[in-house]
Amino acid sequence: MTTGVPGLLLDWKSGDDPERLRDREWLVTNGLGGFASGTLLCIPTRRYHGLFVPNLAQPKGRYIMLSRLDEEIVSGATHVQLGGAELIDGTLHTQSHLYLKAFSLQHQMPTWSFEIDGQLLEKTIVMPQHQNMVCVQYRLLRGDALQLKLRLYASFRRQDAPLNHELTWPFVLSIAGRRHELHMSGSPLQLRFGVSPQRAVFVSDEQESVDVLYRVERDRGYDHSENLFSPGYFQVELRVDTPVTFAATTQGWDSLSIDGPTAIDAEHKRVDRLISIASAPARTGFGVQLVQAADQFIVLPGSRLEEATLAAASGEELRTVIAGYHWFGDWGRDTMISLEGLTLCTGRHREAGAILRTFSHYVKDGLLPNLFPEGEREPLYHTADATLWYFHAIDRYQRTVGDDDIVRELYPVLQSIIEHHIAGTRFGIGVDAGDGLLRAGAPGYQLTWMDAKVEDWVVTPRRGKPVEIQALWYNALCLMARWGQELDLSVDEYRRWAVRAQTSFNARYWHASGGYLSDVIDGENGDDSSCRPNQVFALSLPHPILDETRWRGLLDCVQAKLLTPYGLRTLSPDHPDYKRNYHGDLRTRDAAYHQGTVWPWLIGPFIDAWLRVHGDRKQAREMLSAFPAHLREAGVGSISEVFDAEPPYLPRGCIAQAWSVAEVLRAWVATEETGKEGRRE
Questions:
Q1: Which single residue of 103, 144, 209, 488 has CA 20 to 30 Å from 281?
Q2: For residue 556, what is the enclosing H or E element?
Q3: Final residue before a domain boundary, out of 389, 418, 447
Q4: Are 185 and 170 in contact (CB under 8 A)?
């Protein structure tokens, strides 16, 4: 089935500023948490960039197996270096920008078109789904045959490990016929690779690439240079009638039997199927691009495959959500907030149910995991809101899919969660018996989504009773009452706690002089009346805790002080701690992370609130108008983690963030003009 999926095309002319290519990045994923990524300039600028970064079960974690694949094109007397690197002394070892004609992203596969002496060469990268493998296909579309040299650079470094500065290499290359294998001494890591068709010749020619510069890491205040090792290169003739494919894998030799055309055709068909099941507003234009972007975050966790085996044995599936590329793993909060946009708006109901069931197995002491650390099986639980977002995600799933069985199945888990919160659980999370509101806070921990921390400095501790925690708590209690009634169970206790929380909330949080809600009450230093976006959830959730008489006033204030073309600021500009830009070293960035920096995911709840108050889908859709152009910036085809708080609103942080994509997609679908009433039930 062909859907005529529109791609993203960036035209290029020789002489254009190569920074435009260097500052834009591409990303390919494999559905296991692994990826390939780099810049459109074909050089790495991050420690995370690599042609092959699988998420391995043994040893656990994401490893940069192949840092680069440098292409040298020989056409008569012309020698052209396409792939390459920038060195710490400023030398640029690539000519890609001089010969590039266009870059496109089609069906999630990046493609470069180069013109060399009248010959037209095309390069495409694909990762077969649920395989730890990468394929790079080269096609000559026009012109006489040319010689192609492909030099691979290995790293075998876990992506969060220190950069390599050694000049001694513990690699062992084995060649048996057409089988090429690279080992690292004292490590279980091994890389198998080859080129098809088999007329390619491998030349064993060890080289070092010394003092490679990762300029983004330099700008972020980290170690930013590395030495890389190459065992040699392939040499092959490229003709119009025969594509050439380089493939690398950590799996068995049979994996290398796949060629580029087969892998690319399979990915075309897979993406076409994904788009065909998405909701109607997501099957055209901008929606199609977001459906493809959403796919990159839904994964079978490759570093926990033993759990997948156990899940399959019990008739279940294991699924989770990668919070962002390149450095985030799976986070409970991000997963539950993203679930509706990533899976329900895209028609991926089976995966949605699998995600909800997967996380139910990790509930401990009434808490959902905050995150799974890189390469670890045991999660961390320091979160006050992820657990409450779980209720919301289940509600959205049940209403969309009509799966009442999941409520029946998970209700005992949800009951236990409520009981733990009422009695009090870890990290100071528990209900205040005096007012029915939920408190949270423990020294040294950041428990809400505003979780920046540098060493012992928690930037926004928000200990006490954060405003959105109350909104989520009330929403969860209302859902428990509804679900319990559907199951013919007693729900009087949930209703009593809900009424008590709502009454206390409306008596305590309204900041009358500002016309908005305080961010935290009963904190370490009393009440915090900062104007932050967290108050939106008191209005945006299906069961709003805020009294209806205050809805419009709150919305007007948030719109005036916090709304930008790319989401909501995290702090009002009139606050003394407000930061205009998110840049610099880690401490400087984290000081701004939630102190003004714009987060795109917050546009989702803001539009929910807008539709509840105004019901104007057309005007709400206009609030999303900046995002289509952003797909051609930063991480091409995806939406960044954060933006600066002031024009020109530069994109920052991760180049592809799950809840950014999910909430913009969900808002896009919600603002489709259907003529129906805009108030969300």
A1: 103
A2: helix 551-561
A3: 418
A4: yes
CA dihedral 523, 606, 411, 387 (to 10 degrees): -40
Give the domain extent around 669. 562-681
Kindly state whether residues 324 and 369 are assigned to the same domain.
yes
Pairwise CA distance, residues 24 & 637, whole Å: 10
Residue 225 within a domain: yes
Token readout for 586 is: 């880690």
Q: Which residue shows structure tokens 């930037």?
A: 459
Asked if 340 and 296 sit in the same domain, the reply is: yes
Asked if 331 and 410 sit in the same domain, the reply is yes
236, 302: one domain: no
* Exposure string for 140-161, b = 16+ CB within 10 A, e = fewer: beebeebebbbbbbbbbbbbee
Residue type, 189: L
CB 473 within 8 A of CB 525: no
Q: Which helix (H) or strand (E) holds 562?
A: none
Task: Evaluate if residue 383 carries a pLDDT over 60.
Answer: yes
Task: Check whether residue 265 and residue 291 sit in a common domain.
Answer: no
Looking up tokens 């909060």 gives: 333
Q: Check: CB of residue 671 under 8 Å from CB of residue 617.
A: yes
Q: Residues 237-254: what's their mean pLDDT?
A: 95
Model pLDDT for residues 122-148, shown as the tens digit of each residue = 999 999 999 999 999 999 999 999 999
Nearest Cα to Cα of residue 427 among 451, 410, 454: 451
Find the range with the poorest average confidence among 112-121, 313-322, 603-612.
Answer: 313-322
Check pLDDT > 70 for residue 102.
Answer: yes
C-alpha to C-alpha distance for 586 and 6, rounded to whole angstroms? 38
Q: Within a domain: residue 376? A: yes
- State the pTM of this model: 0.96
304 secondary structure, DSSP code: G
Tally of CB atoms within 10 A around 80: 19
Which ranges constitute the DSSP H helices of 342-426? 349-360, 386-401, 404-423
Looking at the fold, whether 245 and 289 belong to one and the same domain comes out as no
Strand partners, 20: none
- Classify residue 342 by its DSSP letter: I
Same domain, 171 and 77: yes
Q: Kindly report the number of other CB atoms within 10 A of residue 217's CB atom.
A: 20
DSSP 17-36: -THHHHT-EEEEE-SSS-EE
Closest CA to 327 of 231, 183, 406, 216: 216
The chain-wide mean pLDDT, for the chain, equals 94
Instruction: Check whether residue 260 and residue 120 sit in a common domain.
Output: yes
User: For position 309, what pLDDT does the model report?
Assistant: 67
For 100, the token pair is 């590039």
Can you name the residues that pair with 244 across neighbouring β-strands? 138
- Given a contact cutoff of 8 angstroms between Cβ atoms, the answer to whether 288 and 6 are in contact is yes
Percent of the chain with pLDDT over 90: 89
Among candidate residues 394, 418, 442, the one where a domain is terminated: 418
| DSSP string for residues in 535-554 | GGHHHHSSS--S-GGGHHHH
